[in-house]
Amino acid sequence: MNRRLVTLSLVFVVLALVVAPAAMAQEAGHDAAPAKSLGQFLGAAFAIGIAAAFGALGQGRAISAACEAMGRNPGGGGAIRITMIIGLALIESLVIYALIIAFMILFG
Amino acid sequence: MHHEYSFLFKPVNALLIAILGEPGEKYLRAMGAQPGEVFWLPDHVIMAMLAVALLAAVLIPLSRRLSVERPSNLQQMVEMIVLGLEDLLEDVIGPGIGKQFLPFIAALALFIFTCNIFGLFFFLQPPTAKTSTTFALSITAFIFYNVIGIRKQGFKHYLKHFMGPVPALAWLMFPIEVISHVARILSLAFRLFGNILGEHTATGIFMVLVPFVVPWPMMALGIFGALLQAFIFIMLTMAYLQGAVVAEEH
Lengths: 108, 250
What we know:
- The structure holds 2 protein chains of 2 kinds.
- By secondary structure, chain A is mainly alpha-helical.
- Chain A has helices at about 1-25, 40-70, 75-105.
- Chain B has a domain at about 70-245.
- The longest helix of chain B is centred in the last third of the chain and has 40 residues, at about 170-210.
């Protein structure tokens, strides 16, 4: 019963993964919207580019501090790891705000 | 950006139109329908209902078959999740007070994770990729922690927290605190929305470009991101709860 359940779920997952591209690739994009201007492309590109650059810098500092703390205090590894993950997600959310603005510039 | 629909969108709406007739102009405009589209329930509502139905279908029969001596595998897994959340609550909010919020936090966590993971299936759409769902979640969390704070500390004492440490600066602190609290609604909603929409869109683009093998790392990132975003949402809700519940010691 256990092995059958595992096999069945694996088969389902493989099927889902294999059929997914075929189903999705049929919907090719069709934009029937007013032409996009150069300003839109440049604005969106710079928005996400600058946000990603500074976001990566900030996250790099957070991870390096966390690694150093874990090295100095191996016992506190669990708490440091969770704090690092939360900090990374909060920094990343600022980059996501910039991505949303880029989408709004490009597509709306 | 073109919108895709889940496999339930057309059947459910066809059924509702057959039962209730077509909706009027005003209803369609309020629902944000493009000219030409006719539906009773938008896609993300149907998907959210499906998430709730799935969770109920898995968890309610489990709750009837709980056993201490011989727990089933599903029971052990759910116990792991629930006890983990309880430990987290006690850790973040406080040793005695954390446990009472477990139903709300666990419901939020399971619902958000299920909604996020819908993005990985080709016949489903993640409801959290629309601002409607994420704003509903964040406004619910906001109302929840404020009501809990008011209930625990009384209305006037709760408002005193907004005044800040020094009474002389209360006129300055109050608007700043109110704005920062309202900004929490926006930040919770947009963080969840942006992450899930971004992953969904990026996976979709990869699938259009190279349909085989290459989307798999993006989908793995999607699974991790779905879990992480649900975790971050409840972590922040717990932090706000702690701010509202843990009193004074001024």
